[in-house]
Queue: 2 jobs
Job 1
Amino acid sequence: MEEKIKELIEELRPYFNGDGGDLEFIKYEDNYVYVKLLGACSHCGYQSATTEGLEEYLKNEIPEIKGVINVVL
């Protein structure tokens, strides 16, 4: 499951990079995907919309996913 999530994130990475941001996979646990928004995405006012869009995309591909959590360190 984790490898499939990583593959899907890699497919989206160019879109994040195109806006000066990036996305890092942290872990998959209890059907939740943990990611960290990086670059321009890390301080963008649209972080929740970005996370929601990512969640929708991943859930469409992997229905077992319950949600996506942006880890802020």
Job 2
Amino acid sequence: MSAPATTPQPPYYAVIFTSIRTDGDNGYGEIAKHMVELAAEQPGFLGIESARQEIGITVSYWSDVEAIKAWKENLDHRQAQRRAKDWYAKFRVRVCRVEREYGF
């Protein structure tokens, strides 16, 4: 079982990527794994959580908006973004500021 991402005390930012996949892998699995590894190396990256059923939801956590912008402009990430129509029938990206968190 995966654990929730360990994040610092708020505030920080969350990028929520919600998607519905197309049929077939079309190279998605390998690229998705590479993107997670690459994101983890980016300054300001705090963690990631992902779940996929009928709808996929991936939440990545970032220290600030500048870190999110830098990730969006990463060359390998840009190349993966160009393949979105190969992998997704629909998707939405939401950027949120996390004001508080709690749990056990």
